[in-house]
User: Fold At1g61320/AtMIF1 LRR domain-containing protein from Solanum pinnatisectum.
Amino acid sequence: MTILSRTWLQAWLTNPNLLFVACSGAETRAEWSTRGKINIDIVDKIMKRYRDEKIPIDKFELSIDIAKPTGYIFFLIDKWLDIALQNGVTELVYRNLGYYSSFNIFKMLTAKHLRELVLEDCNLVYFSSLPTSYVGNCHSLRKLSLNNVTLDDNMLEGLLNNYPLIDNLIILYCRGWIKFEVRNLQNIRSLHIMIEKKQSLEIEAPILEYLYYFSYSLDELDIEYPNLESLELSGSFASRRFKIGRSESLRVLKINNLRINNCQKIEVDAPNLVSLEYEGNHLPQLKLAKESSKFKNLIFNSNKHSLADKWFCRLMEFLSNSKFLSNSTYCSQVSIQVSLDIYRCGEINMEHLKRHYRVATPQVDVLDVIIEPRDDLATCVDALLWCFRPRRLNISSSFKMIIYLINRLLYMKNSSDSTSHENEPQLVQLKEVRAYKFDGKNESWHPVKPKSMKLKTGDPNNMDKFYFLLDW
Assistant:
């Protein structure tokens, strides 16, 4: 064996980062279901060697994929976790893949070096009745993530009481608790919460900087954190107005896939807002209490498969009628990005769009479009160009649709009087068109000459990727 080979072997045998997806050899399973997994007996041998040789462990990630666990398997899991903790693990991830079982959380409460703890698909309620002597204070932990974990109100509160210096808390679809009050996390800076129906959350976090909040009812949500810089909201609400309280420090606001019943207006009081991202099919009126001179980015994403002229008009109003865009001083400095996934197109009245076009026309920096290969979507392409005048157009569609788009762009570019026949609305003059095609084989973009592009032999409905740089 060469020196290099011995060096690599030593590095492999003392790797401080251990990741196991453990399965049981006693179960009769298909070969495909055990690929990438390791037998529990092999895991046990590896962990014994780390214990006996006192090999340091930085990260220990253990996923258990066993459909019918036994008491012996639970014994092994506890032993492996003990070894990881004794060997100074700083990041611990534990998840169940094949079953939903209990987990002895109290082993973690006295860990001296643990900085990050991630638990998925397990039950902590079983241990809530253990004597208080098992509870310690873990001053090293900074991040706690609970995903699909069952625990009661007292257990959740007790956990956080024992992690006083935590600054990153993630609670995703945890069950068993009803009301949770966070009042003692003075160091929390990042909070990621997804709660079920009938669960309520009250948070006091004076230095909170990032908040992601999902709930089936956002009506009662009151957000007023003096140091909050980034806010992401998702869920549903039924009130006609939804207000985000005043925050001088809020810079980034993301509103994702809201299920809106009767809401007509979203009010935001963030005078220093820099970026707003809205994802969804509903288009309520957006109102800012005070315009932000620092605003630079507006992003809109929609997977509304069927579009009509009314929807286009509402989107134009949504993009244009906010104070930070209606103010001509700042409008030229704002970058607008729109992403659409289009399957079919309803009736589009271009004369109707023309009237809206004269009132308020946002110029979109980037327009991302996925258009299904259907013959009835050509009018939709016209409406996209008409409404948004994108500087960059990214499109995934059939080559037939791409050719239609190119011909339309060249027509707009070559139109000397910016006018078609009498029944067609006035066109906007397009100064320059540059086209680029994606080469899937080499995963690269190549420039193409729009005038030389024609329908190739083969299926014209095959999907292609292009992007166009447009100078209006």
